[in-house]
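Q: what does this look like with flavin mononucleotide bound?
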Amino acid sequence: MNKILVAYVSRTGNTRKMADFISEGIRFSGHDPVLKKISEIKNEKDLEGYDGFIFGCPTYHRDMTSGMKTFLFIAERANLVGKMGGAFGSYTHSGESAQMVFDTMEFVFKMDMVDLGALNLKEAIIDTPDGLKACQEYGKAVGQKFGS
Ligand SMILES: Cc1cc2nc3c(=O)[nH]c(=O)nc-3n(C[C@H](O)[C@H](O)[C@H](O)COP(=O)(O)O)c2cc1C
């Protein structure tokens, strides 16, 4: 059983809901999700002990939140090269953040990213059966990269 950190930021709860559903998918794949707000991660030591990492950020002003940018500088110091990764976020119309986070994990941190790409969901579908399924499948896909 591998330990997968699901670290997210969420102002109004939509990305947090995605994080909950993704964690369920990780559990279904036989692995152990640990759910945290990025504000709980103070330095690179707080990123030790995990086998995989999924980071979540909604889009505000066509950008990541400033908290996520600070968090990614912490993650840079954690040396995540080769670790399993994924990224997600909610949005209403443009939805840049999830892909930005995914790209940073792939190209800067050189992580082993899930084949599905970033999971970017319009907020209106998160709380529907399709939204729940998409999130659970995403968590499962990251878990299945480890085998079960
Ligand atoms: C001031 C403001 C700016 C926003 N800017 C964008 C944006 O540029 N692009 C977009 O797709 N959604 C934008 N949104 C919508 C949020 O991404 C959306 O409500 C998202 O579900 C919020 O996630 P959260 O509940 O996890 O904070 C904006 C929302 C607010 C309140």
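The mean pLDDT is 97. Helices lie at 14-28, 66-77, 97-108, 123-126, 129-144.
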